[in-house]
Each structure stands twice: as structure tokens, then as C-alpha cells.
Design goal:
The complex is a heterodimer of chains A (113) and B (113). Chain A has 113 residues and is mostly beta strands. Chain A is built from no helices and 10 strands. In chain A, a hairpin with a 4-residue loop joins strand 5 and strand 6. In chain B, the strands form 2 sheets. In chain B, strands 2, 4, 5, 6, 9, 10 and 11 form a 7-stranded mixed sheet that branches. In chain B, strands 1-3-8-7 form a 4-stranded antiparallel sheet, with no helix packed on it. Classes of the chains: A mainly beta (113), B mainly beta (113).
């Protein structure tokens, strides 16, 4: 199973872009990169996902390197409400053909006023 | 559309007891997966059910079991509780396909005394 490595914590000034890196050097060709975030005492919330192309939605942008060994989640204008733990996850197919998410330990992002 | 509902929200049990947690997925979602979250181990995958069949399982002992009903509602059972089972148990639902995102409930906080 592909593993992910993320920095333990990061700070970002309110209004600035938050760039959260993730390393997934053992990712396979058919495995997707997903990002979720978890605000204290709530369930994780989906942010964005991609396979090999960069993706953008109303919440964030996902930049995946050409070799797919790493990615960066970009929150373009961070607000205090973006303070959360951000998980980079690789979703892969098991040998039996089913799907499984592997959650890393996440990055604790603190947005500072 | 109603979100994923988990009951109860909080639970206190003693060692040796058993516990059943419930999860109602988003209407139309056929996949329900369960996760255990602890401060030390992070989010760990327990198992996934799709159309009443377990189609994937994590590395947890047999004391952890689950099932899914015809209406896609799922239950998770832990028998012979141990202190280390104290955790936030999260349930997530999805349509179950290859490129799907998970929708999480708020979890059940289990404390084993």
C-alpha cells in the first residue's frame, strides 16, 4: 500500500495562500490522491482529489508532480476557519480488487490572525 | 440531503463488555466504511461494507466486527472491550465506485474504563 508523508504542523497568515505538501513516492499508476481535513471533534471533510492532472474546485487546488511522487494542496486565501488537520491520502485498489484508503498522520495547519 | 448519522455520540463502557455502534449513510450510498481514530495511531481503517457484503478489512483483531443491512445502514460491534479500544469511531459512506469521495459522520467517542 502506498504511504504518505506530511509535515506535522504548519502556520499560515490569514489571507495568504497555504501550501501543504505531501510525499507519496510509492504511489501506483492507478491510485488517486485525496485530501481531507478534520476540524476538532468532527469527521473528516472531503476537499479535493486527483489522479495525475492538477485539479481545482471552490475550496482548493491540487498540484500533482509529473512523476506523481508528491503533491501540494493550496488553499488560496486561508481564513481562521481553515485551521484543521489536513490529511493526504492515497486511495488504492487491493489485490482482491477492492478499494482502500490509507490515512497518514496529517498536517496540523494553524491560520494566524 | 441528510448527512451520515452515527449513534450514539458518546459511550462509556467497562473492560470486558461489548458495544454496538450504528451508522446511517447518506441516502443512495451503498458503501459504508469504519475507521478508528486515536491520538497515537491516527485514523485507521477497520472495514468496508458494500451491498451487505464486507469487501475490505483492515488489520484489527476478530473482536471487531460489522454488518450492513439491506437499507445500507451499518453496525459495528466490539466484543470483550479493552482499555486500548478507547477511541473515536468514524463511519463514512460513499457510492462505492472507483473515483468516489467519502462522507464522514461526526463519530462515536467510546471510552473504556
Amino acid at each position: 500500500d502506498a504511504k504518505t508523508t506530511q509535515p506535522t504542523s504548519m502556520d499560515c497568515a490569514e489571507g495568504r495562500a497555504a501550501n501543504l505538501p505531501c510525499n507519496h513516492s510509492t504511489i501506483s499508476g492507478n491510485e488517486y490522491v485525496y485530501w481531507y481535513r478534520q476540524i476538532h471533534s468532527q469527521g473528516p471533510q472531503y476537499i479535493i482529489h486527483g489522479l495525475k492532472n492538477n485539479e481545482t474546485n471552490e475550496m482548493a487546488s491540487l498540484i500533482i508532480t509529473e512523476d506523481r511522487k508528491s503533491s501540494t494542496l493550496i488553499l488560496p486565501h486561508a481564513t481562521l476557519r481553515d485551521t484543521a488537520v489536513y490529511y493526504c491520502i492515497v486511495r488504492g485498489i487491493t489485490t482482491s480488487g477492492t478499494y482502500k484508503y490509507i490515512f497518514g498522520t496529517g498536517t496540523r495547519l494553524k491560520v494566524l490572525a | 440531503k441528510a448527512g451520515v448519522t452515527q449513534t450514539p455520540r458518546y459511550l462509556i463502557k467497562t473492560r470486558g463488555q461489548q458495544v454496538t455502534l450504528s451508522c446511517s449513510p447518506i441516502s443512495g450510498h451503498r458503501s459504508v466504511s469504519w475507521y478508528q481514530q486515536t491520538p497515537g495511531q491516527g485514523l485507521q481503517f477497520l472495514f468496508e461494507y458494500f451491498s451487505e457484503t464486507q469487501r475490505n478489512k483492515g488489520n484489527f483483531p476478530g473482536r471487531f466486527s460489522g454488518r450492513q443491512f439491506s437499507n445500507s445502514r451499518s453496525e459495528m460491534n466490539v466484543s470483550t472491550l479493552e482499555l486500548g479500544d478507547s477511541a473515536l469511531y468514524l463511519c463514512a459512506s460513499s457510492l462505492g465506485g472507483e473515483n468516489e469521495k467519502l462522507f464522514f459522520g461526526s463519530g462515536t467517542q467510546l471510552s473504556v474504563l
